[in-house]
Design goal:
single chain; alpha/beta; five-stranded mixed beta sheet; 28% helix; 28% strand; globular
Length: 389
């Protein structure tokens, strides 16, 4: 038995130490709740947030009595003790007080990367230069809020200064704000993502696309957009070769399978098992990029190891083909210029795959080699799991 394990049951994810559940994640259509338990449930903490909204509530229970609560609405943070309001602060003032020291007074524009890999790849590749020009920014800086943002910055625009801070607070309704002489812009706000999702759900098929909506949000003219190439990082290539050697992957004849996504529903293991069996018959070695320990195919042979985004891009450049569930990693590997087969499944639990394909097809991204890309819509829900990552 593993010391730590993860179990998915319907819309619930259980995190266990041995057989003891110490944390839960419950996802409904528009809300997510995180629960943690300490000292045999004497202490419990809950965190509720609404998808693409600004309402976040933190609860702290002691012996089933609500002691502390913190509520955020995108403008203010409210603190409660035994359900009595004891403090209220402006989120903008909170930012000014706590985070200005992250960049000092050395930059005129700061762009906060507040999105997952797909949007950030497109922003850095196509839109950043146009935005800097529109803003007439002389000394811009990028604020990365996730570690893989740094990989993407180094691969696409290493000339732009950046900092990494997971502490940077992005639950703010304002897209633009200013601290001293530095103008900040959030790339992108919850309002943007909510708008894009509603357009994809409600507008006629083929009329709403997420990359076009990114351009509209930033007020950037699509004409004359310049595509920055994705570059291999020497350090990533060197570390990749060491990892590949350790797992025995045949770099001369292998394919990549990417079975996981944060938003699209996962395909059942049987789907991937059948694909692997067919690829093995054709003589290919198999590399699977996985994060969850629940993905396990004991009766087929494949190779896997942890790779950074930069290492994953380097590996993709060696591959014969990529088979991928639609995710943000799909965009990040486009410049590898190898054949790619992309699967579109329902978005979470409430957007049909044909609408996901219409709103997120990579064939509408500029300067993509369409001859290398095959997109497949998975309408058969029986081969999908009930959850995403």
């Amino acid at each position: 038995m593993k010391l730590f394990s993860k179990q998915i049951i319907g819309n619930k994810t259980l995190f266990k130490f041995l057989s003891f559940v110490y944390s839960k994640k419950i996802i409904n259509k528009r809300t997510t709740r995180y629960l943690k338990f300490y000292f045999f449930n004497i202490i419990k903490t809950f965190r509720d947030f609404k998808t693409y909204k600004y309402e976040i509530t933190h609860y702290f229970y002691l012996c089933n009595i609500l002691v502390l609560k913190k509520f955020e609405d995108g403008e203010f943070i409210y603190y409660y003790l035994f359900n009595r309001l004891i403090k209220k602060i402006s989120i903008e003032k909170y930012l000014k007080k706590r985070f200005f020291r992250c960049i000092g007074d050395n930059y005129d524009y700061a762009y906060i990367l507040n999105a997952n890999s797909g949007e950030i790849y497109l922003f850095l590749t196509y839109l950043l230069d146009a935005l800097i020009k529109k803003d007439n920014a002389k000394k811009p800086i990028l604020i990365a809020t996730k570690k893989y943002h740094v990989d993407l910055i180094k691969m696409i625009c290493p000339e732009i200064p950046y900092i990494l801070t997971s502490r940077f607070y992005t639950n703010i309704k304002k897209e633009h704000f200013e601290i001293n002489n530095t103008k900040f812009q959030v790339i992108f706000t919850n309002k943007h993502f909510d708008s894009v999702e509603n357009l994809i759900i409600n507008e006629p098929l083929g009329t709403a696309h997420y990359f076009e909506e990114m351009q509209k949000t930033l007020n950037i003219n699509p004409k004359g957009l310049f595509k920055k190439p994705t570059k291999n990082i020497i350090e990533a290539q060197e570390s990749l070769l060491k990892k590949v050697k350790s797992i025995g992957l045949d770099l001369n004849n292998f394919v990549i399978i990417i079975p996981e996504a944060n938003s699209c529903r996962l395909l059942k293991n049987e789907f991937w098992r059948n694909l692997i069996v067919n690829l093995k018959k054709q003589g290919y070695d198999i590399f699977i990029n996985i994060a969850l320990d629940k993905f396990s195919l004991d009766d087929v042979e494949y190779k896997t190891c942890y790779l950074t985004y930069a290492e994953m891009f380097s590996l993709a450049c060696y591959s014969k083909k990529i088979y991928s569930l639609r995710s943000g990693l799909t965009e990040c590997l486009l410049d590898a210029n190898v054949p790619m087969e992309v699967y579109y499944t329902p978005f979470r639990k409430f957007i049909a795959p044909k609408r996901i394909h219409s709103g997120f097809t990579i064939l509408k991204i500029p300067n993509v080699n369409k001859s290398l890309i095959e997109e497949k819509i998975i309408d058969d829900i029986s081969i999908c799991n009930n959850t995403c990552l």
